[in-house]
Design goal:
Blueprint: H1 2-54, H2 70-91, H3 96-117, H4 130-162, H5 164-167, H6 170-173
């Protein structure tokens, strides 16, 4: 009789331990989802900033890219690519491939912005107004902070998945390693 009681106690401990591991990993994933939402919100500020700058008063949304200087048209195209990558990442959150696409698209937007800032001034003035540069730099600081927080959360999540006792049941529970930005 004492053997069966001991077996039931061990079974109960294993179940409670499994539930604890599951709850811990789910909390970590939820934090990752929230951090991805923050990154997405801050990255979308770039599109809003450029659209507001390029919009003609009373003409509605930003002008068509073919009527813009090539640097601005390239930036708009890359911002659309970033938007599509963010939507894909939102559809399959924490998957490595969509997050890598977001990271690549973000880097391309930043490079296009740097190229645009380096365009020499003409008779109209600088290619990028000083106020817009300040707003872009503020948005970049927010994105970098959110991106760093996201990567830190998912690094801890990935470490938790491969820790010894948890890795015994992680595959059964359906947890997979997450990608980073």
């Amino acid at each position: 009789m004492s053997g069966s009681v001991l077996l039931w106690i061990l079974l109960a401990l294993a179940i409670f331990w499994g539930v604890g591991v599951y709850n811990r990993l789910m909390r970590m994933r939820a934090r990752g989802f929230a951090a991805l939402g923050s990154v997405e919100k801050h990255m979308r500020q770039y599109g809003e900033l450029v659209s507001a700058h390029l919009a003609v008063p009373g003409a509605g949304p930003a002008p068509i890219a073919e009527y813009l200087p090539p640097e601005w048209a390239q930036l708009l195209t890359l911002l659309q690519t970033l938007d599509h990558a963010l939507k894909a990442a939102k559809g399959t959150p924490l998957s490595p491939e969509p997050l890598a696409l977001v990271s690549d698209a973000f880097d391309a937007v930043q490079n296009a912005w740097l190229n645009l800032r380096e365009v020499p001034a003409d008779l109209v003035g600088p290619a990028v107004p000083a106020a817009m540069q300040l707003q872009w730099d503020a948005a970049t600081a927010k994105v970098q902070t959110a991106r760093g927080g996201f990567n830190q959360i998912l690094t801890k999540y990935n470490e938790a998945i491969v820790q010894f006792p948890a890795r015994l049941i992680v595959g059964i529970l359906g947890f997979k390693p997450a990608g980073l930005l």
